[in-house]
Amino acid sequence: VPQAVLRSGRVMEYVSLEGLRLDGRRPKETRRMRCELTALPGSNGSAVFELGNTKVLAAVHGPHECRRPSERLEDRLLVKCEVSMAAFSTGERRRRTKGDRRTNELSTFVRRCIETCISAELLARSQLDVSIQVLQADGGVRAAAVNAAVLAIVDAGIPMQDTMACCSAGYLDDTPLLDLNYMEEGGGGPEVHVAYMPQMDRVVAIVTENKATVDVFERAHELALDGCRVASKLMRERMIEHAKHLWAMRQVTLRVSDDETGDETKPISMET
């Protein structure tokens, strides 16, 4: 496995003798995750997903009529995804163009994941636009972008076959590491990114970077799956909380409407 060499000539250690990584985590520990739905009220659906210092905002517009009739699909929904990185998202402080190879590859990956998890046949002859903005990039951008897009689609009420979560794992210092940060991604070791549908127990996509033996790949793949399950649990809990909040707001609106009209209606209960 390649090792990073500092300017002083010393080899960087990604895992200390105490078994701790550069940011103090254990090898099989994820960074703090946080997510929020309806981050942009002006869109049909939106969400923010934070993974440590990485922060991604996703917004969904549609379904709506296809802007170009020649692109319309008769049997399924047309999904368009665009990923952009803010100029201040990394320490480089440079503006990335729309034709940037990294963002184009990331847009394709997110779009293919979305097309797999949604029920595209129910929304034939229409178009869905997904816009993703990377506000902070500190490793795990691919996973955060997928998770934010899935939450935004849920917020928009798009029918889905199952939810989805994405996570990464790598191999440095002869140790499998879960949820790589920016420094660890630059270590030159093997990386495995996995998109996973928990209810269907189905791996949707796998992306690998750098060469790896079969044994290293299998260990990193299993570790990334564990990370997907952790992210999926958090996302599901947040979606339930958001649904309960919307239901409570709906009940308040109904009570106010009944008070104005003078009608007495029995409140509707929601079972979870």
Please state the structural category.
alpha+beta
Number of helices: 4
In terms of per-residue confidence, which ranges show pLDDT below 50 for 5 or more consecutive residues?
1-10
Element order: H for helix, E for strand:
EEEEHEHEEHEEH
Spatial arrangement of strands, main beta sheet: 1-2-3-5-4
Query: How far apart are the first and last residues' alpha carbons, in Å?
Result: 48 Å
- The beta-strand count equals 9
- Report the sheet-strand fraction: 25-35%
The main pleated sheet reads as: 5 strands, mixed
Give the helix level as a range of percent: 25-40%
Q: Radius of gyration over alpha carbons? A: 21 Å
- What is the chains' assembly state? single chain
**Average pLDDT number:** 88
Note the overall shape.
globular
